[in-house]
Amino acid sequence: MTCWRPLPDALPREARHLVEQLRGLKDRTGLSLAELARRTAYSKSSWQRYLSGTKQPPRGAVQALCRVAGADQARLLALWDLAHPTWPRGAVAAAPASPAGPPQAPPLPPGAEYRRWRTAALFAFAVVALLTAGLLWVLPSVGG
Fold first, then answer.
1. d(Cα 27, Cα 53) in Å, to the nearest integer?
2. How many degrees, rounded to 5, is the angle at CA 26 between CA 21 and CA 31?
3. Sorting pLDDT into bands at 50, 70 and 90, what band is 2?
């Protein structure tokens, strides 16, 4: 059985109960976090965050753990449904953030930065292609 660290004090009761149940299920499997990551679509670091209570586990992670453990999904998904609206938005921090700083922009969803760069690169390529085509069309008429 894993020796778990205490859950953050800021974690609501419903979320705390869900994480405790997930911890128990993970312990019951006897799998390490690395083995659990190999058997599910979630990384070792993601499982660390979910099982430490610093990040809300996605519904799919709860389903995946239930599948690996051979447990009843309905009960844990019902707990997830109860915990979901109470879960603190953003990471659960040990100390409250300082209100003195400027307001922070909301975090980008996964892959958003990549999509921004890809869109900018495609736009730049299109502009270069159009300028090249325009030059090729205009240059023969200038010389003749």
1. 16
2. 175
3. low
What kind of fold does domain 13-86 have according to CATH?
Answer: 434 Repressor (Amino-terminal Domain) (1.10.260)
Domain boundaries along the sequence of the chain = 13-86, 112-144
pLDDT at 78: 94
Question: Which residue in the block uniquely carries the two structure tokens 């599948």?
Answer: 67
SS3 89: coil
pLDDT, averaged across the chain: 84
